């Protein structure tokens, strides 16, 4: 998995946690941290999460061989 894919996946997970908090507790963590839903920084985070979600759609269509762990590759 490339660095860009990992970063996008991390943002998607942040978005999922934020939506879970909104759904269960009516608490928007991103808005709370960055000064409200209309704050520029919060809107940037929302935009990046959305773009990351679109980018992660490509992971659904990757062949299984590309997603599996390569045992020959050394990890340090």
Overall mean pLDDT score? 88
What percent of residues are in strands?
Answer: under 5%
Oligomer: single chain
Count helical runs: 4
The arrangement of helices and strands along the chain is HHHH
Structural class: mainly alpha
Q: Mind summarizing the main beta sheet?
A: none
Q: What percent of the residues sit in helical stretches (DSSP H or I)?
A: over 70%
Radius of gyration: 16 Å
Q: How would the global form be characterised? A: elongated
Question: Mind explaining what this structure looks like?
Answer:
There is one protein chain. It contains four helices and no strands. Helices cover 71% and strands 0% of the residues. The two termini are 15 Å apart.
The gist of it:
The protein is 71% helix and 0% strand. It has 76 residues and is mainly α.
Output the keywords.
4 helices; mainly alpha; 76 residues
Secondary-structure map:
Layout (H helix, E strand, L loop, with lengths): L2 H23 L3 H6 L5 H21 L3 H4 L9
Helix pairs in contact: 1-3
